[in-house]
Amino acid sequence: MTQSTTLQRHKYDVLIIGAGGAGLRAAVEAREAGLSVAIICKSLFGKAHTVMAEGGAAASMGNVNDNDNWMVHFRDTMRGGKFLNHYRMAELHAKEAPDRIWELELWGALFDRTKEGKISQRNFGGHEYPRLAHVGDRTGLELIRTMQQKIVQLQQKDGREFGDMESKIKVFAECTITEILKEDGKIAGAYGYWRESGEEILFESPAVVIATGGVGKTFKITSNSWEGTGDGHALALKAGANLVDMEFLQFHPTGMVWPPSVRGILVTESVRGEGGILTNKDGERFMFKYIPDVFKGQYADNEEEADRWYEDQDNNRRPPELLPRDEVARAINTEVKAGRGTEHGGVFLDVSKRISAEIIKKRLPSMWHQFYELAGVDITKEAMEVGPTCHYVMGGVEVDPDTAAAIGVPGLFAAGEVAGGMHGSNRLGGNSLTDLLVFGRRAGAGAAEYVKKSSATPVSDTTIKSAADRIETPFSRAGGENSYSLHAELQEITHNLVGIIRTRVEIEKAIEMIADIRARSKNVAVSGGRKFNPGFHLAFDLDNMLLVAESTAKSALLREESRGGHTREDFPGMNSTWRQVNQIASFDGDKVNIKSQTLPVIPKELFDLFDVHELEKYMTPTEIAKGGSN
């Protein structure tokens, strides 16, 4: 037996699981509302997937093109999500994103500047105007640095006032949460363990904000780090919350496929925004063949116009390399399957022919440095070999748009990638960082308001014992299944059967195989002690990833159309009837169940922002005739 002999206990007003951009912004908001806050970090503080958002943060400040405004940003976001977005989340995001960027600057973020001294903004796929505020290609890193410094600033203020810097806001690094605790149907706290020692830890709190990021490690090839195992999605499901739109996964079109030392590492969309072009093994610039009808008015159908756009954006259409990510990823996948890919299963991305080495090193310093150092690829002189890599999940916890409160679970909140609805069926590049800030703030404010109106519920001894027994269980088995083997099997299934292109037969096979792994996972055995035992950690990560994979596969099976990050080879087109439907996943303790739910109707004032002929490509005649809700 390895049962922990001591149990650390802590009480806070608000508990935040996740220390990326959304979690830290929620923490700031809750602390500034006068509440005590605990921040749980699965790895080292500052090592969040937020840093992988390199290209910039989308906000319609109009610094480079003053035609930009929140209405244009809202339209772009809805188009990118193929109109499956929750309109209210897209509206709030577009309206509030500029304030969140200016706020970051006030807190010390050092953005690149225009000649006039304003925050510089660059082009990105799916955005009509230059909209991404950036710090070279290290924008996510700067966001985390700034937010960390803001946390320290708040701690220093508390130190002066209360004599202890960690009296009101404390970071618990290298700590894993295994269960969100409820009493009388309401949130009461969370239970977990220290990753280094295995010692168990209890947090009692009436409000929990989940900000754990994504699910990429469920898949074989991913840009996500080891932490991206769907913990928050699974914790929410087990606590009684719903997940929405889990069939929609974004395969970033440009992850490195060669050399092996950099396989899966992201090539920021900024490379294409700065003029990078995609070609197949025959040297053909193939993206002109893959412009969907709904985008033909905005994207150039010839190289001459596409090239002119970089110098004159007002009088030329955009290059097709800057189509939304789902379109580019599908195009690359089609080229490779047709035998026109590179020998390593990708295509070529080349920025060296358009801009000089000096400019590349100035505008894309991280890209140049990491690929030169790690792989010997000099992007100032040669093309990169790239292909789709699992990067982001659009699906997540179903939340109230204004408060970020999880539907059906009082005291539970979610923000960032772990929350669903904002991006619809596909996320535009650059929207993730401002999503973190806008809804991280709203989650912190929502949690603070909830706590001030509610009373804390003590966690019962029965609940504590149940959580403790669950952590001990893998050690009590002998000769059971190996979590590493099961994880490898799961990744092969998701990659091959529930990946970028799907069919009914393959998804049904995946559901059957996932169920088999879930059954076998109940016999996972962990040998040795709790200290420095990665097999111990993976036993819990595996359970989370299985729930995510089951939710994705079952949602994908039911959606009989292709839209955004969900492509069905047997249902190749969008269906306007399906546009009105969200797939809602819940967990009954044994299996994931899926139900269909009607998407909220876009209000008339937002409906009227679009040309009706564009909406006809997405909506039913009945919806068009109604003209939005009143």
CA-based shape: globular
The radius of gyration is 24 Å
Share of helix among residues?
Answer: 25-40%
Biggest sheet overview: 5 strands, parallel
Percent of residues in beta strands:
15-25%
How are the strands of the largest sheet arranged? Answer: 7-3-2-11-18
Which segments are poorly predicted (pLDDT under 50) over 5 or more consecutive residues?
Answer: none
Write the layout of secondary structure elements.
Blueprint lengths: L6 E5 L2 E4 L3 H12 L4 E5 L15 E2 L11 H11 L6 H20 L14 E2 L9 E2 L5 H24 L6 E5 L1 E9 L2 E9 L5 E5 L2 E4 L20 H8 L4 E2 L4 E10 L11 H4 L3 E3 L23 H7 L15 H13 L9 E4 L6 H7 L1 H11 L8 E10 L2 E2 L14 E3 L16 H23 L7 H12 L10 H15 L6 H18 L12 H25 L22 E7 L4 E7 L5 H4 L4 H4 L5 H6 L4
Parallel strand pairs: 1-10, 2-3, 2-11, 3-7, 11-18
Antiparallel strand pairs: 4-6, 5-6, 8-9, 9-10, 12-17, 12-19, 13-16, 14-15, 15-16, 19-20
Helix pairs in contact: 1-4, 1-11, 2-3, 3-11, 5-15, 9-10, 13-14, 13-15, 14-15
Structural commentary:
With 630 residues, the chain is an alpha/beta fold. It is 36% helix and 16% strand. It has helices at residues 21-32, 70-80, 87-106, 139-162, 231-238, 270-273, 303-309, 325-337, 357-363, 365-375, 431-453, 461-472, 483-497, 504-521, 534-558, 604-607, 612-615, 621-626, and strands at residues 7-11, 14-17, 37-41, 57-58, 121-122, 132-133, 169-173, 175-183, 186-194, 200-204, 207-210, 243-244, 249-258, 277-279, 347-350, 384-393, 396-397, 412-414, 581-587, 592-598. The strands form 5 sheets. It has a 5-stranded parallel beta sheet with strand order 7-3-2-11-18, covered by helices on one side. A hairpin with a 2-residue loop joins strand 8 (175-183) and strand 9. Helix 1 (21-32) runs parallel beside helix 4 (139-162) and helix 3 crosses helix 11 (431-453). The longest helix is centred in the C-terminal third of the chain and has 25 residues, at 534-558. It is globular, with a radius of gyration of 24 Å.
